[in-house]
TrEMBL record:
PANTHER family: CYCLOPROPANE-FATTY-ACYL-PHOSPHOLIPID SYNTHASE. The active site is at C385. It is an enzyme of class 2 (transferase). Belongs to the CFA/CMAS family. Keywords: Lipid metabolism, Methyltransferase, S-adenosyl-L-methionine, Transferase. The lineage of its organism: Bacteria, Bacillati, Actinomycetota, Actinomycetes, Mycobacteriales. GO terms for biological process: lipid biosynthetic process; methylation. This is Cyclopropane-fatty-acyl-phospholipid synthase. CDD domains: AdoMet_MTases. Its EC number is 2.1.1.79. GO terms for molecular function: cyclopropane-fatty-acyl-phospholipid synthase activity. Pfam families: CMAS (PF02353).
């Protein structure tokens, strides 16, 4: 079985592969490797060659990554990334593979319960990015368990890229610094009104409310909204802060001094950007500020839809594009002027590093809370994404814009007014 796996991945292995039948392949002294534990794992691998099959086998416990704790398999994944180059077998190679593995392994079986439906089967939940379907996929990812997220994200309960003021900063210091930076970029001051769309557990709402800003946050996740609103109450911020369980498109209020979107754009869909940015423009007063914080691709020409692993196990219906596309779509909205963009790619790699550390430190409680399969999934997903940011496969951009007043003088400072 190890030799069969070697044929699937191709190339000269620098990792060690072992299998349940006692076979092995690759250097004996390799520090990192894969251990295929069960025949079911073989079925997952051959029926979905590539990252989806690997994820199924790993989440189900049929495949081990050797060399790291399952809560942080970063180093093992780095070693594997250089070796795992799945290619489609030729007809002759496929025939040989069937003979080697056995035809019974090519009969598809049910995936692990953590897997979402494929895109084509989600139409029962509505058209892509309809309100009903968006609510369903957001619930899939964010309504896992508030306690689990507390264990992974730490005290800030912030599930977006932190901004590290220095290499020695803690995760909590970096998340606080991120909110400080966004608050300053939006030129917020006591008495202002902020709308934070896709507010998560309300970190930006609470940061602004503590500084006398009337902040409204909305999220499609019921569990997030309940946790966030309770935190507003517990911290005595109800005079200034509110979190609603709501689609952002259902917000009726307008005239805000600023709108922030921190980690929502990935769920919007590129085709919906014009309506999305028009909504943001319509919610701010003349001269008001808009900040969009989102994961991006390093260029603008590739397909926007996520690959099978991310789409089935992490962010169903998620879409990414380059910062240039985001900027151009914002510029195409009448009266929106883009002022500044900034890339925080390295900061997201560091954020993911610290989330993985939290998962390892709290592994036993995390497994008790959500099950070992889901905990393994999160370790795999976060470590894999960290490699993506390390290698410039994905980035994280802030894009700052303002709503220009019709026929009025621009009152913004001539140069950036915030500290990095």
């Amino acid at each position: 079985m190890a030799n069969v796996f070697e044929k699937l991945v191709g190339g000269d292995l620098q990792i060690r592969i072992t299998a349940y039948d006692g076979s092995s392949a690759g250097p004996e002294d390799a520090r990192y490797g894969l251990n295929l534990k069960t025949p079911r794992g073989t079925t997952y691998l051959v029926t979905a060659p590539g990252d989806l099959g690997l994820a199924r086998a790993y989440v189900a416990g049929d495949l081990e990554l050797i060399g790291n704790h399952p809560g942080d398999p970063y180093e093992t994944l780095q070693a594997l990334a250089g070796d795992l180059k799945f290619t489609r077998p030729s007809p002759l190679e496929m025939a040989q593979l069937v003979r080697d593995v056995g035809v019974e392994h090519f009969k598809p079986i049910a995936p692990p319960p953590q897997e979402s439906l494929p895109r084509w089967r989600r139409f029962a939940e509505g058209f892509r990015h309809s309100k009903d379907r968006d609510a369903e996929v957001i619930s899939y990812h964010y309504d896992v368990s508030n306690r689990f997220y507390e264990l992974v994200l730490g005290e800030s309960m912030t599930y977006t890229c932190a901004v590290y003021p220095n290499l020695e900063a803690t995760l909590e210091e970096a998340q606080e610094n991120k909110y400080r930076l966004i608050f300053d970029k939006l030129r917020l001051k006591p008495g202002d009104r902020l709308l934070d769309i896709g507010c998560g557990w309300g970190g930006m709402v609470r940061y602004a409310a503590k500084r006398g800003v009337h902040a409204l946050g909305v999220t499609l996740s019921k569990e997030q909204a309940e946790w966030a609103q309770q935190a507003v109450v517990d911290q005595g911020l109800t005079e200034f802060g509110e979190v609603r369980h709501s689609d952002y498109r259902d917000v009726k209020e307008s005239g805000f001094d600023a709108v922030s979107s921190i980690g929502l754009t990935e769920h919007i869909g590129v085709a919906n950007y014009p309506d999305y940015f028009t909504f943001m423009r319509d919610k701010v007063r003349d001269g008001g500020m808009i900040l969009n914080h989102s994961i991006t691709r390093p260029e603008n020409s590739t397909r926007s839809k996520a690959g099978p692993f991310i789409d089935r196990y992490v962010f169903p219906d998620g879409e990414l594009t380059g910062s240039g596309t985001i900027i151009s779509k914002m510029q195409n909205v009448k009266n929106l002027e883009v002022l500044h963009e900034e890339n925080f790619r390295s900061h997201y790699a560091m954020t993911l590093r610290d989330w993985n550390k939290n998962l390892v430190a709290n592994w036993d409680e995390a497994v008790a809370e959500v099950g070992e399969g889901t905990a393994r999934l999160w370790g795999l997903y976060m470590a894999g994404c960290r490699i993506g940011f390390d290698r410039n496969i994905v980035q994280l951009h802030h894009v700052l814009a303002t709503k220009l007043p019709d026929g009025q003088e621009d009152l913004l400072p001539l140069r950036p007014w915030w500290q990095p």
